[in-house]
C-alpha cells in the first residue's frame, strides 16, 4: 500500500523550525495583521505546537504585572527554560497599533537566544486577548519556547479572556487598604489558578493574602484545584520562585487529574467559533459594500421603512444564497 508523502513545509514554517528569529517575527506580524497568505505556514506549524507551558498574568492596572513578568523571566532563564513573552497592550484608536509597543520595561538580555519578547495590540478586544494572540502563542510554542508568558492589558473584569489562552492564569493584585482585593470582580476570582499579592512590603499584604486564602477555600470540591496565594515583591525581589512553584503545581494538577484535555477542548472550541465569526463578519461586510441590492436595503433602514433586524435577516439570506 502506497502512502502519500507528506506535503512540503512552507518556507516560512521551515525557517521558524530552524530557529530563525526574523522569520518568526515576520510571521507574527502577518498573523497580527490578519494576512491570509500566512495561513499555510500557520497550519503547517500547528502540529508542532502543544508542548509549551502557557501562563497568563492578569489583574487591574498598576499592580506591577510587568515587574513580576521581568523577575519571572529572570528566574526561568536561571532554570535554563526557553521563554517567550507576549505583552498585550492597549491599541491606538487611530492606527490600531500597540500604544506601549516599545516595552522599555521588558528587556531581552543581549545575545540571549532563549528569550523572545513580542508586544501586541489588543485590537479592540476588551480583555486584550485577540485571536492573533492565540496564534502567536502557538507560533512561539512551535519555535521551541518551553514557557510562554502572556501579560494582558489590565482592564478589570474583561481580563477573564486570558483563560481562553493560558493553561494557568495568575491574577495579580495589590494590598492597598485591603479594600481593592475585597472588591475584586467575581470574574477574576473564577479564572484565577494562582493569586499573586504583589507589593507585599506594603501594609495590608498579610490581611489581603489571608482574605484571598479564605475565599479560595469556599466551594472547592474535594480533589479539585484550590488556587494558591503567593506574596511577592519586586523591591526587593521576593516570592518569585514560590510563584513559579505554584504555577508548576497547577500544571502538574492538570496532567494528573486529566483536566488538561477538557480545558484544551474548551479553549479550541472558543477559538474556532471566533475564527468563524471573524470570517462571517468579513464576508457580510464585503457583501454589503459591493451588492447594490443590499445597499438598497441599508437605504430603507436609514429611511425607517424597515427595521435593522429585518435587514440583518436579508443580509444573511443573501450571503447564504448559492452563487
Overview of this protein structure:
- The chain has about 325 residues and is α/β, with parallel strands linked by helices.
- The chain folds into three domains: about 40 residues, no CATH class; about 210 residues, P-loop containing nucleotide triphosphate hydrolases (Rossmann fold, 3-Layer(aba) Sandwich), CATH 3.40.50; about 50 residues, no CATH class.
- Helices cover about 45% and strands about 15% of the residues.
- The strands form two sheets. Strands 3-2-4-1-5-6-7 form a seven-stranded parallel sheet, sandwiched between helices. A two-stranded antiparallel sheet has the order 8-9.
- Strand 6, helix 8 and strand 7 form a beta-alpha-beta unit.
- It is globular and about 65 Å long.
What's the arrangement of secondary structure elements?
Elements: H1 11-17, H2 21-32, H3 39-46, E1 53-58, H4 65-78, E2 83-89, E3 115-121, H5 131-143, E4 147-151, E5 168-173, H6 179-182, H7 186-191, E6 194-197, H8 205-216, E7 228-231, E8 233-234, E9 237-238, H9 240-257, H10 259-290, H11 292-302, H12 308-320
Parallel strand pairs: 1-4, 1-5, 2-3, 2-4, 5-6, 6-7
Antiparallel strand pairs: 8-9
Helix pairs in contact: 1-2, 1-3, 2-5, 4-9, 10-11, 10-12, 11-12
Can you tag this structure with a few keywords?
323 residues; alpha/beta; Rossmann fold; 3 domains; 7-stranded parallel β-sheet; two-stranded antiparallel sheet; 12 helices; globular
Amino acid at each position: 500500500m502506497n502512502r502519500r508523502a507528506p506535503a512540503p513545509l512552507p518556507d516560512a514554517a521551515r525557517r521558524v523550525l530552524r530557529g530563525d528569529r526574523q522569520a518568526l517575527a515576520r510571521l507574527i506580524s502577518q498573523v497580527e495583521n490578519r494576512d491570509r497568505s500566512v495561513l499555510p505556514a500557520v497550519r503547517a506549524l500547528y502540529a508542532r505546537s502543544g508542548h509549551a507551558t502557557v501562563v497568563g498574568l492578569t489583574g487591574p492596572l498598576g499592580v506591577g504585572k510587568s515587574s513580576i513578568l521581568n523577575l519571572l523571566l529572570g528566574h526561568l532563564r536561571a532554570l535554563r527554560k526557553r521563554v517567550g513573552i507576549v505583552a498585550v497592550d492597549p491599541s491606538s484608536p487611530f492606527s490600531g497599533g500597540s500604544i506601549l509597543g516599545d516595552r522599555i520595561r521588558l528587556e531581552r538580555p543581549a545575545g540571549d537566544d532563549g528569550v523572545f519578547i513580542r508586544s501586541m495590540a489588543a485590537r479592540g478586544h476588551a480583555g486584550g486577548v485577540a485571536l492573533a494572540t492565540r496564534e502567536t502563542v502557538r507560533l512561539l510554542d512551535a519555535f521551541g519556547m518551553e514557557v510562554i508568558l502572556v501579560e494582558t492589558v489590565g482592564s478589570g473584569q474583561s481580563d477573564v479572556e486570558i483563560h481562553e489562552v493560558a493553561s494557568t492564569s495568575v491574577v495579580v493584585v495589590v494590598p492597598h487598604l485591603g479594600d481593592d482585593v475585597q472588591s475584586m470582580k467575581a470574574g477574576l476570582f473564577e479564572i484565577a489558578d494562582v493569586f499573586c499579592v504583589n507589593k507585599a512590603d506594603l501594609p495590608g499584604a498579610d490581611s489581603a493574602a489571608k482574605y484571598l486564602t479564605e475565599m479560595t477555600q469556599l466551594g472547592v470540591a474535594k480533589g479539585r484545584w484550590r488556587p494558591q496565594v503567593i506574596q511577592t515583591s519586586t523591591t526587593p525581589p521576593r516570592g518569585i520562585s514560590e510563584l513559579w512553584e505554584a504555577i508548576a503545581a497547577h500544571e502538574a494538577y492538570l496532567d494528573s487529574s486529566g483536566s488538561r484535555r477538557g480545558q484544551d477542548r474548551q479553549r479550541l472550541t472558543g477559538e474556532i467559533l471566533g475564527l468563524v465569526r471573524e470570517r462571517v463578519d468579513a464576508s457580510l461586510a464585503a457583501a454589503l459594500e459591493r451588492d447594490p441590492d443590499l445597499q438598497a436595503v441599508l437605504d430603507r433602514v436609514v429611511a425607517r421603512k424597515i427595521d435593522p433586524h429585518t435587514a440583518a435577516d436579508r443580509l444573511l439570506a443573501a450571503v447564504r444564497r448559492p452563487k
